[in-house]
Records
---
Amino acid sequence: MIPTLTDLRERARKRLDPRVYDFFEGGAGGETALHENEAAFRRLALLPRVLRGAATRDLSVTLCGDRLAMPVLVSPTAFHRLAHPEGEPATARATAAAGTVLVTGMAATVPVAEVTAAARAVQADAAVWFQLYLQPEPEVTLALVRRAERAGCTALVVTVDSPVFGRRERDARHGFDDLPAGLAAENMRGLPGATDDRPRDIAMSPGLSWDDLRRLRAQTRLPVLLKGILHPGDARIAVAEGVDGLLVSNHGGRQLDAAPASIEALPAVAEAVAGRIPVLLDGGVRRGSDAAVALALGASAVGVGRPVLWGLAADGEKGVRHVLELLRAEFDHVLALCGGGSPADLGPDLVVARGSVRGGEAR
Ligand SMILES: Cc1cc2nc3c(=O)[nH]c(=O)nc-3n(C[C@H](O)[C@H](O)[C@H](O)COP(=O)(O)O)c2cc1C
Ligand SMILES: CCCCCCCCCCCCCCC(=O)C(=O)O
């Protein structure tokens, strides 16, 4: 039998130390945002169109100059070697094989240059983006950016939803507040402030402002996307500032527990952006139909976080390949059932609230 994401999650749970499983699985506070990310998708339905002549389907999308074979990419998640000894390179090989983007993070347990090399060993033009938290000292941020550029990353994803670290109650219960011996945030080694044997800590900085983002953009030619946008006002500022893309996200429910589900925040952000830059979404995407709903509501692509960690923990590179292939096949299937030939055929007229008696009226 082909394992579903639910099977892989269960395999991951059985294989992982419970403290690590809970670190991956958990959210902030009472985990309302975490729960709602998935639940909000269940409250939406797709209203399919028929007889559209979509015999051949092309799932590809282009984002910030990179072509993705499907509108599903890998969102940044920390510390892949907690899931599997091969860590981020295994994820990179699987993602490259799927022809999509891996967003590798500054909290990776393998240096970014090794991650891009692993991806390019599978596919010469594999796209790897680099996620970073702006550090309070600009010289540290700049050193990280140069590292990502030298490694051949093709975009920067700046996470802006973490002025302070989320309060993760599962981790507090386990007393899980450090990496096991032998694992470290390898991209933080050798930066200003690091000592020879100890990588620098990743800092969260509540004092950051749009000035810091402006400085970053002046220092690099790479496209810069902002991750963690939920408010349409921030989306409008980002467009005016010249940002290259947005990722609507509540950080998988790990930061502000009172935040809305990502899919609920998407329509207002998409409306504010009005097609001027790509809008992506992550949080709670577990099926191809979730990706289709997000695209219909204005996303150009979706990201997945935890499902990739489940695949990695369950079966290494093979497990991640399986996760991405499942999502690709499901998305293709749903697109066909909705009468679509490409992601661009999915529009807001296809999405209705479940249980809404007037949902089927002509649009
Ligand atoms: C274990 C874990 C670690 C994460 N680490 C990061 C990180 O280092 N940087 C970041 O911007 N987001 C991080 N995220 C958030 C993800 O990028 C993404 O927003 C979230 O996982 C999407 O929700 P999903 O897990 O429901 O797909 C992390 C999420 C998880 C579950
Ligand atoms: C595995 C031990 C947990 C360590 C928690 C304290 C470290 C804070 C700085 C690390 C930043 C890593 C970001 C990861 C992330 O965004 C997320 O978990 O979500």
---
Amino acid sequence: MEIFKYMEQYDYEQLVFCQDKQSGLKAIIAIHDTTLGPALGGTRMWTYASEEEAIEDALRLARGMTYKNAAAGLNLGGGKTVIIGDPRKDKSEELFRAFGRYIQGLNGRYITAEDVGTTVEDMDLIHEETNYVTGISPAFGSSGNPSPVTAYGVYRGMKAAAKEAFGSDSLEGKVVAVQGVGNVAYSLCKHLHEEGAQLIVSDINKDAVRRAVEDFHAKAVDPNDIYGVECDIYAPCALGATINDVTIPQFKAKVIAGSANNQLRDTKHGDMIHEMGIVYAPDYVINAGGVINVADELYGYNSERALKKVEGIYNNIARVIEIAKRDNIPTYKAADRLAEERIERMRNSRSQFLQNGHHILSRKS
Ligand SMILES: NC(=O)C1=CN([C@@H]2O[C@H](COP(=O)(O)OP(=O)(O)OC[C@H]3O[C@@H](n4cnc5c(N)ncnc54)[C@H](O)[C@@H]3O)[C@@H](O)[C@H]2O)C=CC1
Ligand SMILES: CC(C)CC(=O)C(=O)O
């Protein structure tokens, strides 16, 4: 991989490699764009097959955060971290504290939170070393685990997409195929079950499947079979790139709406599902609930205010669908347009001589 060439192609600002021999920390912080504000995005801990795969994941996820934060109306830029390691075996206090010191060294250009493989407890350890971390324990007056709020946002966005596809936003009786029933998807299944949807689930973790079957009467299928099941809605809630050349011909769903980041393997796959008439709720618009929630901590956390904003994901998805129809473009392009236009508007309206000079954290009461 030619790193600078890749960074130049998508205009990345910074890539930070963190190595701490004592704790075994190997982390990559990617900062994509800070036009709107400091880069906020979670920390993923994962067993990457190669260093190149980890770098690429950090870069792709960071860029997604720029678009997510912009489309959600947040005054935040986009960044993300990946820690190379097995979250079941390689975590330690030393590792997260060492990582916290690297974040502190960036002096507010990057603020972290949870992602796949990291928890509130991990964020609390990072917080021992830096204030540039969100999603820490409610005991600190913070917002805690973002996953249930992300799930609520996905549920709201799914309803907006269902309205477009089925003429009603009721999910009662709808069959929803959920890929991955981890932190976000478990809470999503709860909302769907309570509304009377029927659930089909898959996960590579058998305990996660068992829990969904027991708690929500979900039907379980093999991980490879989830794409082709008879359903109304496909909800990708595991890792990215599950909308691709292999899976698209299998889809029976009329709506794709889930929490996973980077769901399209490539933009051409967004065009393909558009041509098939599938209503696609763009990933970074529908899954913004978590970041909206943790970002509220920067103003002094108020859960009511945060949830009200998250509810607005319904309108955001409806708006993206409206732009797509108006301009006759796929929804993923409409979402990109929304985000890019906001970033450009803010870039152009900023004056070098009239900046407020305060870090966003200084607004915390
Ligand atoms: N946690 C949050 O607040 C947010 C999460 N997301 C994204 O949503 C997705 C899920 O996040 P979490 O629920 O936090 O993660 P998680 O790690 O709790 O859940 C992911 C689940 O997917 C399963 N899985 C992995 N590969 C699979 C496969 N091939 N087939 C079926 N299942 C598979 C895992 O076993 C796990 O149970 C991720 O892509 C994450 O980046 C996005 C925004 C916010
Ligand atoms: C988990 C969120 C709090 C932030 C993030 O990294 C995301 O939305 O993907």
